[in-house]
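[Discussion] Sanity-checking designs against the backbone

I'm trying to build intuition for which residues belong where. Below is a structure token string of 345 positions. I'd appreciate it if someone posts a full sequence so I can compare it with mine line by line.
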């Protein structure tokens, strides 16, 4: 049995001590963050890490992000912290930025996916920071979904995948950002983005020269630095094709599917696009076309919508890859198995 615990009640403060103990003793508790829901276990316990991989059905060479309650805890788990890394923590924590450090020996290889480095972040959700404090250990937490599926942004989505497999879920409501954290490493005074996310390249470039890991741009040529980027990810229940580029061409192309009768199409589109489609179609509206934050926020929920509204193929409308659009298009590229079609004037 998996217990669901509401954050919005007076008992949480007491309850969290108990949940912290479950983690410390090797159990699993899913927790809310500003990005997506995490599947938490004791990051210092290799056996707990193995349980996380088993619950998710995740390959064990795909490392876990370690969550701390405050930046001053980081030094206990990493060999060194550079001034630029200090600055990133100061500016963006608590928040959706994960930093890769050389790990100390107390981080087991099960947690680090057999790497000599460890990825650490401090999440913004107060209920989760209270959980980490109560546990008294850092918490390893990948997204709380079955591997290959879209990440959960509500406690209900966590229950759908994890009910019966973990001890508890803390229900902190829908996640604010809805996309996983930006993962970076600092190399020779430069910031390298391994995975785009809520903290954008534009924001990081204001601090220091920032580059995107080459493997993210040309995924076939180079081995990605963030190992998880090589796996199938975020796959919805039907094949997805995403259209981007010239607005008129996108509208024409997507509208044309509603006239085809060869199979049942579903649509993951902006409000403007939805207005051009027949009402009886299966449509998930991600927000207004210019509102990329809404697209980020609703992305995974939109992909999961087609679990309960089955279709043969999903036709998606994407966005341009600037600001948070870079992270959105990274997820949509993976969710579609690289079926992103760019339409020009
Ligand atoms: P998630 O899939 O949200 O659980 O995030 C975990 C991802 O973080 C992994 O799939 C990797 O891509 C990345 N990651 C974790 N630890 C490291 C590390 N030490 N070095 C590089 N990337 C890492
Ligand atoms: Mg994940």
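Best answer:
Here's mine. Compare freely.
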């Amino acid at each position: 049995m998996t217990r669901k615990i509401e954050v919005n009640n007076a008992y949480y403060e007491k309850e969290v001590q108990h949940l912290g103990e479950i983690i410390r003793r090797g159990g699993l508790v899913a927790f809310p963050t500003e990005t997506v829901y995490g599947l938490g276990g004791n990051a210092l316990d290799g056996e707990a890490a193995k349980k996380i991989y088993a619950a998710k059905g995740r390959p064990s060479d795909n490392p876990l992000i370690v969550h701390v309650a405050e930046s001053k805890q980081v030094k206990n788990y990493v060999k060194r912290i550079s001034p630029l890394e200090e600055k990133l923590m100061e500016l963006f924590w608590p928040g959706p930025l994960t930093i890769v450090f050389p790990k100390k020996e107390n981080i087991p290889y099960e947690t680090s996916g057999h790497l000599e480095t460890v990825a650490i972040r401090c999440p913004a959700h107060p209920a989760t920071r209270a959980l980490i404090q109560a546990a008294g250990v850092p918490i390893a937490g990948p997204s709380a979904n079955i591997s290959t599926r879209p990440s959960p942004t509500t406690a209900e989505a966590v229950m759908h995948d994890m009910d019966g497999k973990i001890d508890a879920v803390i229900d902190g409501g829908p996640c604010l950002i809805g996309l996983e954290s930006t993962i970076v490493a600092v190399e020779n005074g430069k910031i390298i983005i391994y995975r785009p996310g809520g903290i954008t390249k534009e924001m990081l470039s204001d601090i220091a020269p920032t580059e995107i890991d080459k493997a993210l741009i040309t995924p076939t040529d180079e081995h990605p630095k963030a190992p998880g980027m090589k796996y199938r990810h975020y796959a919805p229940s039907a094949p997805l094709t995403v259209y981007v580029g010239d607005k008129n061409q996108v509208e024409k192309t997507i509208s044309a599917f509603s006239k085809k009768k060869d199979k049942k199409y579903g649509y993951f589109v902006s409000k403007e696009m939805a207005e051009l489609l027949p009402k009886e179609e299966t449509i998930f509206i991600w927000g207004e076309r210019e509102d990329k934050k809404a697209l980020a926020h609703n992305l995974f929920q939109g992909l999961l919508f087609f679990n309960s509204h089955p279709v043969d193929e999903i036709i998606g409308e994407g966005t341009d890859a600037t600001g948070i659009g870079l992270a959105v298009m990274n997820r949509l590229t993976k969710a579609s198995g690289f079926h992103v079609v760019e339409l020009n004037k």
